[in-house]
Every structure is written in C-alpha cells, then in structure tokens.
C-alpha cells in the first residue's frame, strides 16, 4: 500500500472546546486507508464524536492537522468536504430538518448539483436500501426513532460519499435493525467505500470491523486489527469497555481451552469444530 491510499490522516491532533480548559483530543495520530472498515470505541466522553467531527470539517484542530483525501481541512469549507465525506450524526434529530422524507433525501444531492435524474435515482436507491419505500411524503418527525436513524443514513448515502462516517448507528434500533444497518454499511465497504463507525455495541464491532481504535481519556489508547485489540482484555477493561460477548461465550463453551489468543466469532466456530473433532476421534 502506498501513502496515496491514505484517505483520512490526523497529525498531532489536539482539540479543546472553546468553553473548556481541558483537551477533548490529545495528540491523535491516525492513518486510515481507502477501503478500511474501522470501529472507534471507548467509554462515554472519551472523544469519539469529537474525533470524527474533524473528518468532515465540522470541527477544526486546535493544534495539529487533519488531512482528508490529501487536503488539509483547515482551509476547506464543510460543503467542499461533503463531496467525499458523508457524516451521519449520533442523534438523527440533530441532522434531519426537512418537511418530508423526500426533501430530506434530495437536499444533499441537490446541493452537490446532481442533475434531476441522478437525484431521482439516488432517492429510489437509498429508500430501497434503507427500507423506507412508500414514506417519501411522510413528515420525518412522525417516523419511528429507528426509521429516523435510517433516514439520516439514507440522506447521506444519497450523496454517494467515498468515505462514510457514522456516529453510533445503533441508537434507537433493535438488534435486528442494528445488524441490517451494519450489513448495509458493510456492503458499501465491500464496494470500496471507507467506513468509520463509532459504537458502544461490541458485538457489532466483533462482527463487522476489521480495525478497532480505542479512545480513552481523549487519547488513542489501542489501535489494531479487531482480533489484536480484543486480545488485550486487561487494557480493554481498563478503558472502561466490556469485551464482546463472544469471549464470555467462548469461556463457557470451552472452559478448558486457554483463551490466550484473539477470539472473534469465526475463531470461536473454528475452536468448537476442533474440540468436536477431539471428542469424536
Ligand atoms: N460542544 C461541546 N462543548 C464542550 N465540551 C464538549 C462538547 N462536546 C463534547 N464535549 C466534551 O468533550 C469530551 C469528549 O466528548 P465526545 O462527545 O467526543 O465523547 P464520545 O466518546 O463521543 O462520548 P459518547 O460515547 O457519549 O458519544 C467530553 O468530556 C465532553 O463532555
Ligand atoms: Mg459520541
């Protein structure tokens, strides 16, 4: 991989909210490459949202630099960044503003100057992808919380961003809805979109993310493949995170197997098959 593959970069990034004396981000140095699926995790207030808001220019560094698609965000208006970075807010009600579902979805593509046919096509596509067909004329605030969350994602996807950033996609969704939303993000990732997701749901992280960044007290505490990160159980617990249930499940199902190596669902399946082979030998 070459440096050209880096689509998001932070260099000695520090951020302090103007109303506060302490830093919300301290010396964050990250390279995120084209096509990665990254989960950013960490306890409440650890700096996840503050970090990803730098990726679409909603926040500008107090110190250091953020480079998106080779460009320093400091000199770029958010409207310019919107061409490459789609950002879905943690709370859909902070994002949704239009009178109808249709207007909400069309807003971004119109702003980017898409021709009418492309706007129409994009709308139909995202309505179908998000399971919102037939709701075009509905008022967003009358939708369920889960539907509003999916509308927020739909209106961002309509702009066809190459980088997709989603802040806690599972709020207000049940497990099945969460899985299907993550599946969708995963499908986009397979098509080459770079995806960065923050979440408190470790089961979703262990199922979907290939890389995990752990934030703790405004700093990047761990960064590695999903397996590498979840293998560091002590550090994970220290950062206030409950490891994925698959670990607990593995301990219960295979009490005699020492879990000194990373466990993700695939590993657990493999371990179980091996144990069965031992028993039936
Ligand atoms: N608008 C703001 N003004 C002042 N301080 C803020 C603001 N937004 C966040 N903070 C503070 O910055 C720190 C990091 O907050 P941030 O929202 O980035 O955390 P988070 O990891 O996204 O948390 P959560 O899991 O609850 O979403 C916290 O101490 C928070 O109180
Ligand atoms: Mg947050």
Number of strands: 10
What is the CATH topology classification name of the largest domain?
Answer: Rossmann fold
CATH architecture of the largest domain: 3-Layer(aba) Sandwich
Please report the first level of CATH classification, the CATH class of the largest domain.
Alpha Beta
Helix content: 25-40%
Instruction: Tally the structural domains.
Output: 3
Please identify the structural class as seen in this structure: alpha/beta
Bound molecules: adenosine-5'-triphosphate, magnesium ion
Mean pLDDT: 89
In short:
The chain is of the alpha/beta class. It has helices at residues 48-53, 78-81, 101-111, 116-129, 145-157, 175-190, 202-208, 226-231, 233-238, 245-253, 265-279; strands spanning 6-15, 25-33, 37-41, 63-68, 71-72, 85-88, 163-167, 194-198, 211-216, 219-225.
Features:
alpha/beta, binds adenosine-5'-triphosphate, 281 residues, 38% helix, binds magnesium ion, Rossmann fold, 11 helices, 3 domains, globular, single chain
Please tell me about this protein's structure:
The protein is an alpha/beta fold and 281 residues long. It folds into 3 domains: 1-84 and 161-243, Rossmann fold, CATH 3.40.50; 95-159, no CATH class; 244-281, no CATH class. It is 38% helix and 21% strand. It is built from 11 helices and 10 strands. The strands form 2 sheets. It has a 6-stranded mixed beta sheet with strand order 6-7-8-3-9-10. Strands 2-1-4-5 form a 4-stranded antiparallel beta sheet, with no helix packed on it. Helix 3 packs across helix 4, helix 3 (101-111) runs parallel beside helix 5 and helix 4 runs antiparallel to helix 5 (145-157). The termini are far apart. The model has no long low-confidence stretch (mean pLDDT 89). Bound molecules: adenosine-5'-triphosphate and magnesium ion. Adenosine-5'-triphosphate is lined by residues 17, 19-20, 24, 42, 44-50, 90. Adenosine-5'-triphosphate (ATP) is lined by residues 17, 19-20, 24, 42, 44-50, 90.
